[in-house]
Structures are given as C-alpha cells and as structure tokens.
C-alpha cells in the first residue's frame, strides 16, 4: 500500500511525523488552499481533509460549528471532491479524506472509494464506520490500495485491538481519551503507556490525535507514537493569528525533529 511505504520512508528521516487537518470549505476554499500550501512548505507529512457532515459525532464545538457553517453555504460532497483532486494534483503529499459513514452510504461505499482513488487520495478516515458492519468499506479500500484507517482507544481490550488492527489499513488512529476533538489532552505516563501498548500489541503504525496543542505535546509523543495529528489547534491558530501564526506554529513543531 502506497501510503504505508510513504510513511515508512518519512519515518526513517524523522523522529515523529505530523498530520494536519482542514475542514473543506471553512472558511472558504481559498483559505483552505493557503493553509495547505503552508502545511506543504513547513514540514507537514500528511494532510487530512474533512468533508463536512451535519452530525459530526467525533468533533468538538470548534469543528461542529465549522461543519455547520460550510453546509449552510450549500457546499456539496462533489464540490469537496473536486477541491481535493485539485490539491492532490498540486501538492505531492499524502492526502486522506476524513468524513462520516453516512456520506459514504449515500454516495455508495464502493463508488466513494473508487472516486477517492481516481482523484489521488491515499486513504480515508471514517470514525463512525462500524467495525462489525462496514466490512465492505475496509475490504474494498484494501483491494483498491487505499488506506481505511481504523480507530482505537485505551478502552479497546487486546482482542478488540487486534480486530481493529486486522480490519484497518495504513495506520491506526489512536484516540487517547474519551470525548471529542479540541479539548486539551494531558500526555502523562498513563496515556503514553496506552499508546505504547497499542503499538506493541498490533505492530502497526500509530497516529495519535485529539487534544494536541503544540510542540510540547508532539515532543511528548516521540518514542511512542509515529504520527501526531493536529486538528482543532490548527483552526484556532488560523482564526487568531492567520497564516503568519500558522507558519510559526508549524516551524516550532518541525524544529522538534531537528533537536538532538
């Protein structure tokens, strides 16, 4: 699978990789592209683009409000896919689509995966895809060479954790706590132990998201996580400090990989 080779190659040169996030259409496509260009130019390794949905159950208040704002403008799934295609053609970096299972169901699961492959997407993240009922999504993605990222938490027992590892592909998205995106996570010894346990038991690449606020959090994850996912904080920086603030934020994080 292409994204697995890309991650392996990048990990050979860095202590930890960074994946950033944008909600497509918020505040508009032009702002999205400027952020993506900033990501690309400042050491980001993977980019997660979210197709808005009316009931984003994994998202906190920041992203929920943004999802709603995009939908109120009348932006459709097809508009988002056209934007993703343009970005994937322009920026040679792995793009993943994040959305909710109802979007795939309405579009047609296989048709959605086919479209993602056609437009240059490397994988999908669907946090509410039912592990026991969405086998077609996971299997067909694998057949098409696209990652279908599965979700694990500290509450996944060893048997469930292995099922999560077996059905998903690309990497495991590890959510270190209960709740939704945006809230601060304290990456203490207990959480780090949970991440290490997931890595040891599955042998998979582990990406950690939910609550990463800055360089200190990313630095804490070195040695346990392979990828740090930064979402809500990116949007907050853009809204308060604009592109110059985002560029500085990303440079501060990129510096972690240069420190001895």
Present the secondary structure layout.
Elements (H helix, E strand, L loop, with lengths): L1 H10 L5 E7 L5 H13 L4 E5 L10 H12 L4 H14 L4 E4 L2 H7 L1 H10 L4 E3 L9 H9 L3 E6 L5 H10 L4 E3 L14 H14 L3 E3 L6 H7 L5 E4 L1 H23 L6
Parallel strand pairs: 1-2, 1-8, 2-3, 3-4, 4-5, 5-6, 6-7, 7-8
General description of the model:
- By secondary structure, the protein is α/β, with parallel strands linked by helices.
- The protein has a single domain (about 1-250), classed as Alpha-Beta Barrel (TIM Barrel).
- The protein contains 11 helices and 8 strands.
- It has an 8-stranded parallel beta barrel, surrounded by 8 helices.
- Helix 5 (about 100-105) packs across helix 6 (about 110-120) and helix 10 crosses helix 11 (about 230-255).
- It is globular and about 45 Å long.
- The chain starts with a helix and ends in a 6-residue tail after the last helix.
- The model has no long low-confidence stretch (mean pLDDT about 95).
Number of strands: 8
The succession of helices and strands, N to C, reads HEHEHHEHHEHEHEHEHEH
- Show unreliable segments: none
In the CATH scheme, the class would be: Alpha Beta
**For the terminal residues, how far apart are their CA atoms?**
32 Å
- Protein structure class: alpha/beta
Report the helical percentage. Answer: 40-55%
Strand share of the residues? 5-15%
Briefly note the CATH topology name.
TIM Barrel
Q: Main β-sheet: number of strands, strand sense, barrel status?
A: 8 strands, parallel, barrel
Q: What is the H level of CATH, i.e. the homologous superfamily?
A: Aldolase class I
Globular, elongated, flat, extended or rod-shaped: what is the shape?
A: globular
Major sheet strand order: 1-2-3-4-5-6-7-8
């Amino acid at each position: 699978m292409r994204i697995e080779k890309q991650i392996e190659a990048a990990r050979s040169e860095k202590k930890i990789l960074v994946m950033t996030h944008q909600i497509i259409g918020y505040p508009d496509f032009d702002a999205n592209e400027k952020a993506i260009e900033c990501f690309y130019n400042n050491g980001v390794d993977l980019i997660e683009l979210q197709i808005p949905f009316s009931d984003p159950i994994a998202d906190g208040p920041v992203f929920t409000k943004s999802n709603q704002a995009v939908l109120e403008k009348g932006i459709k799934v097809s508009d988002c896919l056209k934007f993703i295609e343009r970005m994937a053609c322009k920026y040679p970096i792995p793009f993943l689509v994040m959305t909710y299972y109802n979007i795939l169901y309405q579009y047609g699961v296989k048709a959605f995966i086919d479209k993602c492959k056609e437009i240059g997407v490397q994988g999908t993240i669907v946090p509410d895809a039912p592990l026991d009922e969405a086998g077609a999504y996971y299997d067909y993605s694998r057949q098409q060479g696209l990652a279908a990222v599965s979700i694990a938490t500290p509450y996944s027992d060893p048997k469930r954790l292995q099922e999560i590892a077996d059905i998903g592909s690309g990497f495991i998205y590890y959510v270190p706590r209960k709740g939704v995106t945006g809230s601060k996570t304290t990456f203490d010894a207990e959480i780090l132990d949970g991440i290490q346990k997931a890595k040891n038991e599955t042998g998979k690449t582990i990406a950690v998201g939910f609550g990463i606020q800055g360089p200190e959090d990313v630095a804490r994850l070195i040695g346990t996580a392979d990828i740090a996912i930064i979402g809500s904080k990116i949007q907050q920086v853009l809204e308060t400090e604009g592109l110059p603030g985002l560029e500085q934020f990303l440079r501060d994080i990129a510096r972690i990989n240069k420190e001895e």
